[in-house]
Design goal:
This protein has 85 residues and is α+β, with helices and mostly antiparallel strands. It has one domain (22-84). It contains two helices and four strands; from the N terminus they run αββββα. The chain has helices spanning 7-19, 65-84; strands at residues 22-26, 33-37, 46-48, 55-57. The strands form two sheets. Strands 1-2 form a two-stranded antiparallel sheet. A two-stranded antiparallel ribbon has the order 3-4. A hairpin with a 6-residue loop joins strand 1 (22-26) and strand 2. It is globular.
């Protein structure tokens, strides 16, 4: 971590990360990336890829690590949001 950052700067950076409710999602077919709200990304949710129109289905048992990672990040963001409220 950068030693020049103060604790208030770090807190602002962390809050900025929490306030952004977007999760980066990578298409398993074309590799394109897009963003979706963390509150939407849950098991059973699907969305079309904005690049190739393939349906991206979010299941925790997915063989695709990018899908599992997006689910994990979304769950973490929802928990952080609840902890702040």
């Amino acid at each position: 971590m950068n030693e020049n950052l103060t604790s208030s700067s770090i807190a602002c950076l962390q809050q900025g990360a929490i306030m952004s409710d977007q999760i980066r999602v990578q298409c398993p077919k074309c590799g394109g990336t897009m963003k979706e709200k963390a509150k939407k990304i849950r098991g059973g949710f699907s969305m079309p890829c904005t690049h190739c129109s393939t349906a991206i289905v979010f299941e925790s048992e997915s063989n695709d690590s990018a899908i599992r990672q997006a689910l994990s990040q979304a769950r973490r963001m929802r928990r952080q949001t609840l902890a702040l409220n």
